[in-house]
Design a protein that fits this description.
Blueprint (H helix, E strand, L loop, with lengths): L14 H24 L34 E6 L12 E12 L2 E4 L4 E7 L5 E7 L6 E7 L11 E8 L4 E4 L5 E3 L20
Antiparallel strand pairs: 1-2, 2-3, 2-6, 4-5, 4-7, 7-8, 7-9
Length: 199
């Protein structure tokens, strides 16, 4: 007698069918939750169906004034190092520029008189004078620091008034250049202490 042939086929579980059914069931449950949470109480929300719909009207106003035009002459002043070390007798350069706008482009005003006023923090006022250069309308002043520690760690201002035959311009205290000399105290170098001989 021959032994009966047994099939070696294995039965695989059908997980993909279970996943599809589970995902479909989860989608159905989530839809019910969203619908249940999105319902509103009709007692608290009332809609007036007889009211006209809300509309937005955009009105263009043709009576607008034009933008202000740029001034034909501009000026400014600045100091490149606004916190120098307080060293009495050292000089701080102050730069000031006077330009004329020609077709929207700045051109330096040559030969203008630049009268600067230095307002020190100790209350002293010093006048300075320079002339603008022909190339770019630049004037350079040299401020010499006085031997007065009262001006250190405080703002000191420089204003400038330009005067030319064609126009004038002023850098007042609201736009003044400034510098704050920093008082630095030198640190003492430690002196070595002698050690006794070991012998």
């Amino acid at each position: 007698m021959k032994p009966s042939a047994q099939s070696n086929t294995q039965v695989r579980p059908h997980y993909s069918l279970y996943l599809k059914c589970g995902a479909l069931f989860l989608l159905l449950v989530m839809s019910f939750v969203v619908v249940a949470c999105s319902t509103t109480d009709s007692a608290t929300t009332t809609t007036n169906l007889s009211a006209p719909p809300v509309t937005v009207t955009i009105q263009f106003n043709n009576d607008l004034t034009s933008l202000p035009t740029q001034a034909p002459y501009l000026c400014g002043a600045w100091i490149t190092n606004t916190s120098p070390a307080f060293i009495p007798g050292s000089t701080i350069p102050v730069y000031a520029k006077f330009v004329h706008l020609v077709n929207g482009n700045p051109e330096g005003v040559a030969g203008a008189t630049a009268q600067a006023t230095l307002y020190l923090a100790d209350g002293n006022v010093q006048p300075l004078t320079a002339t603008t250069t022909a190339a770019d309308g630049l004037a350079v002043f040299s401020v010499k620091l006085p031997n007065d520690p009262a001006i250190s760690n405080r703002n000191n201002l420089v204003t400038v008034a330009f005067t030319a035959p064609s126009a004038s311009c002023t850098v007042d205290q609201s736009r003044a250049a400034y510098f704050t000399p920093i008082l630095v105290t030198p640190t003492a170098t430690p002196t070595p202490t002698p050690t006794p001989d070991g012998g």
